[in-house]
């Protein structure tokens, strides 16, 4: 019996006949490790994968990709000499709270990546091929964490909450802004 060529790509992968790609799904495996040997033996011949996985502990400040949120990874590998180039797209959804009014907000995150893997990288920007495997998880984690929004807002013109009484100013003025004693208002003007 002859072995199918894609056994190189671990048992959790199966060929998607329609688009000629290799697919890994969360139902079978959450593993993002791919053997580098086929690529390094066949420089210039690309191999693409599509993976849909979930990862835990993916956050920056209080913005995060929730543990059950799917992360779609559409990547092409190709070897050039001893380097495996990894290029493609990653998309998922983030959750957090509005920096100004603190209500829950979420949004789509979609971006491209372009990275390199080597057996014994001397440059810290290059990911290591360890035990003959390309592990995409650190790349995916690094990429997502650096792309999460630092100041998520429910809307660009969110008015936030009053620092004095805590009222949500998106729902209207609070008492603080209307109850300034006219005598103090005169002093305010004098200070200028
Ligand atoms: Zn807001
Ligand atoms: Zn107020």
Notable features of this structure?
single chain; 192 residues; alpha+beta; 2 domains; nine-stranded mixed β-sheet; two-stranded antiparallel ribbon; 16% helix; binds zinc ion
Structure, described:
With 192 residues, this protein is an alpha+beta fold. The protein folds into two domains: 5-158, no CATH class; 159-192, no CATH class. Helices cover 16% and strands 37% of the residues. It contains four helices and eleven strands; from the N terminus they run βββαββββββββααα. It has helices at 37-41, 136-147, 175-178, 182-191; strands at 14-16, 21-25, 33-35, 47-53, 58-60, 63-65, 71-80, 83-97, 104-118, 127-130, 133-135. The strands form two sheets. The chain has a nine-stranded mixed beta sheet with strand order 1-2-4-7-8-9-10-11-3. β10 and β11 (133-135) form a beta hairpin. The radius of gyration is 25 Å and the shape is elongated. Mean pLDDT is 83; it is low at 1-28. The chain binds zinc ion (2 copies). Residues 98, 100-101, 103, 153-154, 158 line the site of one zinc ion (ZN).
Task: Briefly characterize the structure.
This protein is α+β, with helices and mostly antiparallel strands.
Number of DSSP helical runs? 4
Question: Can you summarize the main beta sheet?
Answer: 9 strands, mixed
Domain tally? 2
H/E element string?
A: EEEHEEEEEEEEHHH
* Average residue-wise pLDDT: 83
List of distinct ligands in this structure = zinc ion
Taking Cα atoms only, what radius of gyration do you get, to the nearest Å? 25 Å
Strand order of the largest sheet: 1-2-4-7-8-9-10-11-3
Helix content: 10-25%
Question: Beta-strand percentage?
Answer: 35-45%
**What structural category do the secondary elements indicate?**
alpha+beta
Count of extended strands:
11
Regions with little confidence, pLDDT below 50 for 5+ residues: 1-28
Head-to-tail CA distance between termini = 89 Å
The dominant shape is: elongated
Assembly context of the chains: single chain
């Amino acid at each position: 019996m002859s072995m199918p060529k894609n056994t190189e790509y671990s048992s959790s992968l199966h060929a998607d006949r329609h688009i000629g790609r290799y697919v890994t799904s969360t139902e079978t495996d959450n593993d993002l490790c791919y053997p580098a040997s086929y690529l390094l033996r066949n420089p210039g011949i690309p191999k693409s994968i599509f993976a849909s996985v979930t990862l835990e502990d993916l956050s920056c400040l209080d913005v995060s990709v929730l543990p059950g949120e799917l992360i779609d990874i559409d990547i092409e590998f190709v070897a050039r000499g001893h380097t495996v180039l990894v290029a493609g797209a990653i998309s998922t959804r983030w959750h957090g709270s509005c920096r100004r009014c603190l209500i829950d907000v979420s949004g789509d995150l979609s971006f491209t990546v372009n990275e390199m893997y080597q057996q014994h990288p001397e440059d810290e920007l290059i990911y290591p091929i360890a035990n003959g495997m390309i592990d995409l998880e650190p790349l995916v984690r690094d990429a997502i964490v650096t792309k999460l929004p630092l100041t998520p807002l429910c809307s660009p013109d969110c008015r936030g909450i009053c620092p004095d009484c805590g009222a949500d100013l998106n729902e209207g003025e609070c008492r603080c802004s209307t109850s300034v004693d006219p005598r103090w208002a005169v002093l305010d003007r004098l200070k200028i």
